[in-house]
Write a structure and sequence with these properties.
This protein is mainly α and 984 residues long. The protein has 47 helices and 10 strands. A 5-stranded parallel sheet has the order 2-3-4-1-5. It has a 3-stranded antiparallel sheet with strand order 8-10-9. A two-stranded antiparallel sheet has the order 6-7. The longest helix is centred in the first third of the chain and has 20 residues, at 122-141. The radius of gyration is 37 Å and the shape is flat. The two termini are 70 Å apart.
Length: 984
């Protein structure tokens, strides 16, 4: 694979300054620039950009480099720089360049120079040599402005530094730019180079560029330049963690990930198969090793203990670990800081030290034998525990590193403390790591006294893997836990595990197995009269599942049982859960008359004032957001879906995040900001692909499908549904919520592709029972009925939408009035249809749903085409303005198609009119304008006129500017007026 070339990222200000300096060379104003930073920070890349800029300004460019292996050889970078310019040049030109410069014979033995005269003064001889070199450089520049770049000056020999210092004199009056790249870490151990830079800092023509590590935004720009935007979820954080913003490390990591197949493209998106790099790319490793090898063994000891600490380590502890004298320890710290290997900071008034780059830790580990590392971890533990240190996270990290060298009983105790702490903080991967470590220790070491912990550990591993989305692992651990709890006859834990398995199997699409586990768990819980909490939790799960299965009577029975049981439990948490159950009840639409968004708003506000766990709070906010989006209150929905998203991120449950994005995408669609929904689609897919195939991936596809269908891109929407069914073979058709969420996309596709009758027959002409998105689905079903010729069925559907209270659900009324208008128009009741469509438009306007408002106006215009064409035109132009503002291309084209029914004629190119002489368009511009008015896209116009889409855009910009307009709708209006003026 070819080496990646980094784009210039977060170095733009330096490029701008360099460009100005190069431009100044024409006026004879020279400068010196040092580009400084750590290895891999992008110094060479910036010097390459400087060479490109210099070439564009027709400057002569000379390039030299110093090398670590040649740092004791005089003039190496100067000789290299000159030799590069000798290559490929005929001998006559070289003779002209070197004429009368015999002192050059001391450096270039391949040329036959006469012996220079002896002066007897070494200092004078050096001056003559330097003067000859300067003269040679000027001749090779051939009268052009000159840019000299010397890379890696920290390796430069003293003689080369002296010459560069000589060359730099009088730079402000010379057309020369001298660029020096320097490793700040190497500079600290090259005293002559350090003195040279210190001397230059006194000059006014000297500039110093310090390159910093890239920010997260910079890393994102660099990575997307390589791979595009379809990145795995958390990939930027992954790259930041392992590269810490060093561009060379980023490029090497990407190359390594691609070459090893760890990063691969699947279904148009990148997939990352690991959470942490296993092998450091060779080039990075060698770079870090080279830096470590420059320090002595005592300094490496300091580095080792700083490296094995999880974060930073205090001065007091690190000094004690190294067992060095205070003076020697401080000297080591100073050298390691200068080498860029460690940093220091103040924490609570005490100095702490940390490794400057995460990869340095890994290289330190790789370079030391395992037993050396383990014993270092063990000694670290001893020092900490002697000082009564109580940071469980760090102790667990050290015990894990010490392995068998540490006391097993103490190790188990620390691991369990850290695992429980991690679980409370939703750090499920860390929790699983330590639970598994304890389980393996008990099983492999045959620790009889600890065997009673095994079922608990298995249960915890099941919970952790479930939260991580690793359902197959979760199932395995839960089933094993049940078998072990049976031996102890622990019915409470067995019931809990049945509930957990029920959730796991449901999310995997295995509905029947899920229900069986839930039923078995509830049977056990109902027998445990002294433990109502477990019964309550299982009942709440049952309530959710029965809603999805649309089992109305059973749902109501469970809801009633929940209200009874929560009184038996009597805790604040049970009261909060009962509140959420009530929110679910008023949202589930199990009974159509109990849909009460106003009631839900009061309940969620009350829940916010209660003592509530994250799981309960997420459920309350999420279900409330669903309720509000169903009735068109997208602002309220956005508020509570955002709260649900924040809680899901706190809990680190990707599946909950994906659900929250689905609601937010719907809110974006209703508000007309459909482009805001696109990033949420990508986010949903990135997160879903990190989890086992199942419900999360279904949610992601549903989100994508409904956005495309809503905006009229039916081909993409259908592809999305087909892809979902291909990728999720266990597609849970019994899950009513999933089927209902898919229904709008399917019906919009059927209506948009004129296959409504086919869909109607497929559904056996029977209105489905919608629990999710009930009003939108009902309205679309009415459209299907109407398109399939079932006008009476559509009329009944419209009336059903208008059954509820208007003040509770204006969205349902807006949809119902619009459907009723269409039905009346189809039945020939034109006057009635106009009243109803007018009402619908007003309701959508009151709800601030611009797309549906404009669609209602378009329907109104279509109805009055024959009776009042002038009013129809005005309404269609109003629609076009809204559709263009929303980038709703499909609706825009439909509107333009209706305008053609009016017989609107647009002027042919080249037609003249004195009345519009001042604003008259050119022939080509009129052609473009006419095609725009006919509803063609820029690409279609380009194909028609055999020009590029970019040229079409340019013409449109000129047209808009000349006519002082800013939209296609305004252009159509202009053409209509233009046409009328011609007829007069």
């Amino acid at each position: 694979m070819t080496e990646m070339k980094s784009p210039i990222v977060e170095r733009e200000k330096h490029v701008t300054q360099i460009s100005a300096m190069i431009a100044n060379l024409v006026d004879g104003k020279g400068s010196i620039v040092t580009i400084m930073g750590e290895p891999g920070i992008g110094k060479t890349r910036l010097s390459q950009e400087i060479m490109n800029i210099a070439s564009e300004h027709r400057c002569k460019v000379f390039h030299g480099r110093s090398y670590s292996v040649g740092s004791d050889t005089a003039y190496t970078p100067i000789i290299e720089m000159c030799n590069q310019n000798f290559r490929g040049v005929d001998s006559e030109k070289v003779t002209t360049w070197t004429k009368d410069l015999p002192d050059l014979g001391k450096l270039f033995r391949r040329f036959q120079f006469p012996e220079p005269p002896k002066v007897g003064d070494p200092a004078l001889e050096k001056t003559r040599l330097f003067e000859s070199l300067v003269c040679l450089v000027e001749r090779m520049a051939e009268g052009q402005p000159l840019v000299i770049i010397q890379d890696d000056l920290h390796f430069a020999d003293p003689a080369s530094l002296e010459f560069l210092h000589y060359l730099s004199r009088g730079m402000n009056n010379s057309p020369l730019l001298l660029v020096l790249t320097i490793d700040t870490f190497g500079l600290s151990i090259n005293t002559p180079a350090s003195n040279f830079i210190q001397s230059l800092r006194k000059e006014e023509f000297f500039k110093e560029f310090h390159l910093d590590r890239l920010s997260e935004q910079g890393v994102t720009r660099l990575v997307t330049n390589r791979l595009g935007t379809a990145l795995p979820d958390g990939f930027i954080a992954f790259i930041m963690k392992h590269s810490e913003g060093v561009p060379l490390f980023i490029d090497e990591l990407l190359l390594s990930l691609l070459e090893t197949g760890v990063l691969s493209m699947q279904d148009g998106a990148w997939i990352l198969s690991i959470n942490s790099i296993e092998t450091i790319p060779y080039r990075i490793k060698e770079l870090i090793k080279g830096r470590i090898q420059r320090i002595n063994s005592s300094d490496q000891k300091v580095l080792l203990y700083a490296a094995i600490s999880k974060g930073t380590v205090s001065h007091r502890i690190l000094h004690r670990l190294t067992q060095m004298s205070e003076d020697d320890f401080l000297l080591s710290i100073q050298k390691l800081k200068s080498a860029g290997l460690i940093f220091e900071e103040i924490q609570e008034m005490e100095v702490h030290y940390g490794i400057y780059h995460a990869l340095v830790k890994e290289v330190v580990f790789d370079e030391l034998p395992i037993m050396v590392r383990r014993r270092a971890y063990k000694f670290f533990i001893e020092v900490l525990e002697e000082s009564s240190f109580n940071d469980v996270e760090l102790l667990a990290h050290l015990y894990y590193g010490a392995g068998p060298e540490a006391d097993p009983a103490r190790t188990i105790m620390v691991f369990l403390q850290e695992a429980e702490r991690s679980l409370l903080l939703h750090a499920y991967a860390s929790a699983a790591k330590y639970y598994k470590a304890v389980l393996e220790m008990i099983q492999t070491k045959k620790m009889t006294e600890e065997k009673s912990r095994i079922p608990f550990l298995l249960k915890r591993l099941g919970e952790a893997h479930k939260m991580l989305g690793e359902r197959s692992e979760a199932q395995r651990y839960c089933l094993e836990a049940i078998r072990t709890y049976v031996q102890y006859d622990d019915q409470i834990e067995i019931a809990r595990l049945h509930g957990l398995l029920s959730n796991i199997f449901w999310e995997s699409g295995e509905i029947e197995q899920s229900l069986q586990y839930l039923e078995d768990g509830l049977a056990i819980a109902r027998r445990l009269s002294d433990s109502p909490e477990i019964r309550y939790k299982l009942l709440h799960t049952s309530l959710i599942f029965l809603s999805r299965l649309k089992r109305s009577e059973e749902y109501y029975q469970v809801y009633e049982e929940i209200q009874e049981v929560h009184k038996l439990v009597g805790t604040p948490q049970a009261a909060a859960q009962a509140k959420v159950a009530e929110i679910d009840y008023w949202t589930s639409y199990v009974y159509k008359e109990n849909y009460m968004p106003g009631r839900v708003r009061l309940l969620i506000e009350e829940l916010g004032k209660m003592e509530v766990e994250d799981e309960t709070l997420f459920r309350g906010c999420f279900v409330s957001a669903i309720n509000f989006i169903f009735c068109g209150q997208y602002e309220l929905s956005r508020i509570y879906s955002q709260k649900a998203l924040e809680v899901s991120k706190q809990m680190r449950i990707l599946e909950y995040e994906i659900r929250s994005y689905w609601i937010q995408a719907l809110a974006d669609l209703l508000s007309g900001n459909w482009k805001l929904a696109l990033p949420k689609i990508e986010m949903s897919f990135a997160k879903a692909r990190r989890i086992d195939v199942g419900r999360p991936l279904i949610y992601a596809h549903i989100t994508k499908g409904i956005v495309y269908a809503w905006m009229g891109n039916f081909t993409e929407a259908q592809l999305c549904l087909d892809e979902m069914k291909r990728l999720v073979p266990a597609f849970p058709t019994k899950d009513g919520h999933v089927m209902d969420m898919l229904a709008p996309t399917e019906m919009m596709i059927a209506l948009g592709t004129e296959r409504a009758a086919e869909f109607y027959e497929l559904m056996n002409r029977t209105q489905p029972y919608y629990v999710a998105l009930p009003f939108l689905n009902m309205a679309l079903w009415g459209e299907i009925q109407l398109s399939a010729g079932d006008q009476m069925g559509a009329l009944e559907t419209a009336k059903e939408l208008l059954l509820g209270k208007m003040e509770e659900n204006l969205f349902s009324w807006a949809l119902g009035e619009r459907l009723l208008s269409k039905v009346h128009f189809a039945l020939g009741n034109k006057e009635s249809s106009l009243i109803h469509i007018h009402e619908a438009a007003n309701y959508f306007k009151a709800l601030n749903i611009p797309l549906e408002y404009a669609r209602s106006i378009r329907i109104h215009a279509d109805m009055i085409l024959e009776d009042d064409p002038e009013e129809a035109k005005n309404k269609l132009l109003q629609c076009m303005e809204i559709f263009e503002h929303l980038d709703a291309d499909y609706d825009l084209h439909m509107t333009q198609a209706i305008m053609k029914k009016l017989g609107v004629r647009f002027p042919k190119p080249g037609t003249k009119s004195s009345a519009n002489k001042e604003t008259e368009l050119s022939k080509r511009e009129m052609e473009v304008a006419r095609l725009v008015a006919e509803g063609l896209t820029n690409i279609e116009i380009a194909e028609s006129l055999i020009i590029s889409p970019r040229t079409v855009s340019t013409h449109l910009e000129k047209i808009y500017r000349r006519l002082d307009i800013n939209s296609r709708a305004s252009l159509v209006k202009y053409l209509m007026n233009y046409d009328q003026s011609l007829e007069k």
